[in-house]
Amino acid sequence: MRRGANASLSRENPGLTGIVLGVRADAGAEKALADHLVVAAVLCDQAKQALSGDHFVFFNQLATPDLSVEKLTELLGPDRDQIEIDLDRVPESVFRIVVILYVNEGFPVNRALGRLRRCEVRVLNLATGAELVRSEDLAAGLDAETGLALGEVYRHQSEWKFRVLGDGYADGILGLARDYGISL
Amino acid sequence: MNPRQAPPRTDLPFLRHRRIAATAGPLSLAAPVARRVAPVRRVTAQQPLILTPPMPAAVLTRIQSGVGRLTVTARWSSPLAAGPIVAGLVVAYRKTTGEARLLSPLDGPYLESDNVRLDHRAGAPVLTVDLLRVRAIDRLLLACLAPASPLTGALILTTYGGSRVDLPVTLPAGFGAAALMTAYQVDGELVLRAEQDPVGGTVRDACLAYGYDRFTWLNPNTPVR
Hints:
The complex is a heterodimer of chains A (184) and B (225).
Chain A: E1 6-8, E2 18-26, H1 31-34, E3 37-44, E4 56-57, E5 69-71, E6 81-86, E7 96-103, E8 118-125, E9 131-134, E10 147-156, E11 159-169, H2 172-180
Antiparallel strand pairs in A: 1-11, 2-6, 2-8, 3-4, 3-7, 5-6, 7-10, 8-9, 10-11
Chain B: E1 49-50, E2 57-59, H1 62-66, E3 69-76, E4 89-95, E5 100-103, E6 110-113, E7 116-119, E8 126-130, E9 137-145, E10 151-158, E11 164-171, E12 177-186, E13 189-200, H2 203-209, E14 217-219, E15 222-223
Parallel strand pairs in B: 1-11
Antiparallel strand pairs in B: 2-13, 3-8, 3-10, 4-5, 4-9, 6-7, 7-8, 9-12, 10-11, 12-13, 14-15
């Protein structure tokens, strides 16, 4: 799926109750970059703003309070990171779940996402492990960005859909936090 | 002060939960006695926090504790004087594996260990913690070595998002070593506490006072590496 494209999840897959968002980010020999990549999920309201600080799922906060979204510590498949979503448990106030990737600037690493060889996000059926949709290579359009909104799972009328975003941020997590209302 | 009207004391465990005293009369299960619980002090970019003796603790959220880096800068009113002991910040920390580390300016102006960096090269000493590995840290102690003159100033703690916590520091001359701040990682949240505790003459005294007892010491200020 190209940037901007969307696909139905629940309508095309009747009985779908859970999905896994898998992120692949191949940094090749760029170990400094690979070691500082962070994948996270942001649960947003209709205004595309994070519901609260509790609705930012990443390595230091592995699940939302209602456990509808969890970052998996044991991966199912070859992805670098995976985020599990129990669609039936997602609160009504959540209209979209955005999966993001950023370079953690602890000690400055001077590495940007443009050095990635490949970067994809895909959606798996939680029950069967089958791949439902996969994005194109999002690394192709990157340069000095240190943050990236990969894709989003969102409500559309009575169904769940997935859209590839591929929106890069030169200011990394700071830009993502600004756009999605994450309080750092 | 009337205990019923006094605020909770987060620094004293036995006063953290003040209860209203029982009054004479039949027990009413329909109206439970209100229980005052000390609030958790949070930090935001819009509202800097100052840690003082009555309210010495604050808690960073898991986002603040896990994104980017934490920076602690020491701002003193006068430069720390050099002498037999080079004054500056000392950092002791314990990892969740049980290993303990000590970073001291006596070992050099720039030190890095795991995800902790201590830099004395540019005037104000700076401690930087890379939060990507925050879960590897169990607790941390920030102490100061004594200058010849009284020490006033503050530790300025800044999160990656710009939230700020100030710890005012006022210490007399020749206090030896003083514990200034402790931090504890509790399920991904960093609990910060201002100590301002002149514990004694040496770095070893400060470490032992705060439970860092897994070092072997070359001398009272230098652990065996």
